[in-house]
Amino acid sequence: MLLVLTTGGTIDKVYFDASSEYEIGEPTVPTVFREAGVTLEWRLEPLLRKDSLEMTDADRAEIRRACAEAAEERILITHGTDTMSLTAEALAGLPNKTIMLTGALAPARFRVTDAIFNLGLALGAVQSLPPGVYLAMNGTIFPAGKVRKNREAGRFEAV
Amino acid sequence: MLLVLTTGGTIDKVYFDASSEYEIGEPTVPTVFREAGVTLEWRLEPLLRKDSLEMTDADRAEIRRACAEAAEERILITHGTDTMSLTAEALAGLPNKTIMLTGALAPARFRVTDAIFNLGLALGAVQSLPPGVYLAMNGTIFPAGKVRKNREAGRFEAV
Amino acid sequence: MLLVLTTGGTIDKVYFDASSEYEIGEPTVPTVFREAGVTLEWRLEPLLRKDSLEMTDADRAEIRRACAEAAEERILITHGTDTMSLTAEALAGLPNKTIMLTGALAPARFRVTDAIFNLGLALGAVQSLPPGVYLAMNGTIFPAGKVRKNREAGRFEAV
Amino acid sequence: MLLVLTTGGTIDKVYFDASSEYEIGEPTVPTVFREAGVTLEWRLEPLLRKDSLEMTDADRAEIRRACAEAAEERILITHGTDTMSLTAEALAGLPNKTIMLTGALAPARFRVTDAIFNLGLALGAVQSLPPGVYLAMNGTIFPAGKVRKNREAGRFEAV
């Protein structure tokens, strides 16, 4: 079984006309999984709705705790891209857990987006890799601690 | 590096108004990879444009040959879903190759489709698994020989 | 109030994986109108599900009868594009009726399509024009009898 | 011939990951018209990129001047929805001009949006109506001065 933790980020952003604001809305993972015909057993635990630039150490501790306490050994985390690699590093050392972080540079609700593909990318990898922490972005699976987001270029790169 | 072989199937179907016909068109993988910001190095080899119900042993031999002769150790194959498991079984025993077959129940050109997600699913898994042949459908990675398509239910299941 | 008559055509085509066939499905107008926030009062009367190349005189007589018997003075008809102009000509001479035919070269269910735009085009025009019969295609409102589909070029032209 | 003036609004909003900001981007009308196969002759004049809550009298005077000076008699204006009716009222009394304002509650770049439909709605009506100023929203053509946006309900209503 798979646990999906949602923490916010661009992937779940939606436009609210009433406020003329662009905010993080309901997790889009359930809709994406349904439209993709995912039959794997999985559970959703919505934790946060934060832009990752606003994540705090307390937030990261909460995410770590949710991973540690989960019965599941496979965990997919959706997260804003700006500090995804920091959160990944904060999740090191949890035994028997394959943890995969992903997110998107464009919201899942957009017509042209990387969100759908990235969720598939993350799901394919999280069920295939041994325990550890990884990022799934730009079609690539990166081990945590060896990747950073190149903000100018708008992509993730190995370091 | 990754080799992508395209063989047809619903994933690449497109509607041609001039003929009032719904046929297999240009491979959609390049567009999907581009929109998803895939930075992994990869190469496209379009082999066939067939409905998988029309695949022959000669076709499967051609696919096997393309896998064997490729320099790449990671190979992603897009294929019609109806006989995907048969083709997977025909690719057994190629040393040092991680081969991932995927396809879709709805064309990539549809607004609601599993195609985009499945391509991500396959890409995440093909770079994560040891040599062997696998199918990526319905959010699940199946080893070849242990899966069949349940046509009534419209999904793949382990056997 | 507006009456919407659906008769088939590419606009409503959907892919059925179980049959590997591409067929005319449920009318897409209700979904399109809902997503567009249409608040105008309207009623749906699904008449046929035909490729317009297969329309007969009896079919056209049925469409004419539905228009004549409707209480509504504004009627929007979705129709296959191949013989849309023939059906339009068969609807001439119904007093106090503004009748607008439209359809699409790509299904409404496609990610890239003219279907959504054409339904808006037709709706904007049908509430704005005096009685008569018209076609709404390629961003243009054509009076019936003065338009034909250029099949090679895939567009409608005034004649 | 048709003149299209763009002034901003939600319809053209796009997400810029680099700034984590949701801003007004390039006008989407050209892409929408192209995908819809619009063959009508038309010209684009991008005037502003403003949220309509930030429109000033000077902005409205500029829009009016552009309408007055244009050779075209048919003018389609894309505009934010919040003060669309105010701008419409500021355009009254220009002889021989059929002016149609439209916009959207969701960006054209969204997968589910009213933008595409509304552009079709506006185009169908602007070529069908006599000189005057109108709004095209929620599937309805409203004469200027007789409509307001109900912000709580998120729709336009006749007054």
UniProtKB/TrEMBL annotation, chains A, B, C, D:
| Any one GO molecular function term | asparaginase activity
What SUPFAM superfamilies does the database record attribute to this sequence? Glutaminase/Asparaginase
EC assignment: the record states 3.5.1.1
Top-level EC class as recorded in UniProt: hydrolase
Ordered alphabetically, the record's keywords are: Hydrolase
The cross-references to InterPro entries, in alphabetical order and at most eight, read:
Asp/glu_Ase-like_sf, Asparaginase/glutaminase-like, L-asparaginase_N, L-asparaginase_N_sf
Decide whether keyword Hydrolase is in the record. yes
Q: Which residues form the L-asparaginase N-terminal domain?
A: 2-151
Q: What is this protein called?
A: Asparaginase domain-containing protein
Q: Which organism is it from?
A: Luteolibacter soli
Q: What is the lineage of its organism?
A: Bacteria, Pseudomonadati, Verrucomicrobiota, Verrucomicrobiia, Verrucomicrobiales
